[in-house]
Design a protein that fits this description.
The protein is α/β, with parallel strands linked by helices. It is built from 5 helices and 20 strands. The strands form 4 sheets. Strands 2-5-8-13-16-19-20 form a 7-stranded mixed sheet. The chain has a 6-stranded parallel sheet with strand order 1-4-7-12-15-18, with helices on one face. A hairpin with a 2-residue loop joins strand 19 and strand 20.
Length: about 180
């Protein structure tokens, strides 16, 4: 039922407001186009979207664990964010003995741009001011101020951007100290 209401809500600002009313932590000036959310065992409380974020049409966001999208980030159309990995534990798949079910938060840094059709797997963290090329697969930490891409995504080059003027991101406990420590190096 909630999915239908979100689909009928055609204005991306109204959709953000509706998600806020449903328990998501949504900042100001957030635009959420026709994205789909799943694994809503805890409702929308695992969704944290800071100010000025754009979530494009067709994005698929798994809320098994926390998803944090920092200020000014852009998710292009059809980005997939997964916070769990499970080969079939609930139906006793033999593979789940080798690959047990796992959940972990995903953090997308401030002022980052995630290219269309990219997939971000559980436990991944994308640093601030990072550009991720279209059709990339992120399965680990991508540092701030880089252009990355590929499957799996890897750093392609450094970006020469003034962090002080652009990022303005705050840390959350799930993000750890990794991003801010790397900025000091």
């Amino acid at each position: 039922m909630v999915e239908r209401v979100l689909t009928w809500c055609v204005n991306p600002y109204w959709r953000a407001t509706l998600l806020r009313l449903l328990g998501a932590r949504i900042g100001k000036n957030v635009r959420i186009y026709e994205a789909r959310f799943f694994n809503l065992m805890t409702g929308f409380q695992n969704l944290k979207v800071e100010d000025n974020v754009h979530i494009g049409t067709g994005c698929l966001i798994d809320l098994s664990d926390e998803v944090v999208i920092r200020k000014n980030a852009v998710l292009s159309p059809r980005v997939v964010v997964l916070t769990h990995s499970d080969p079939g534990e609930y139906h006793h798949s033999e593979l789940s003995k080798m690959f047990p079910r796992r959940t972990a938060p995903v953090v997308i840094g401030g002022s980052s741009w995630i290219g269309a059709n990219s997939v971000i797997l559980c436990g991944a963290e994308i640093g601030s001011l990072t550009v991720l090329g279209a059709n990339s697969l992120v399965n680990e930490r991508i540092p701030p101020k880089v252009m990355a891409g590929g499957s799996p995504a890897r750093k392609l080059r450094d970006l020469d951007i003034d962090l002080e003027a652009s990022a303005g991101e705050s840390e959350s406990p799930s993000a750890g100290a990794g991003v801010s420590e790397e900025l000091d190096d």
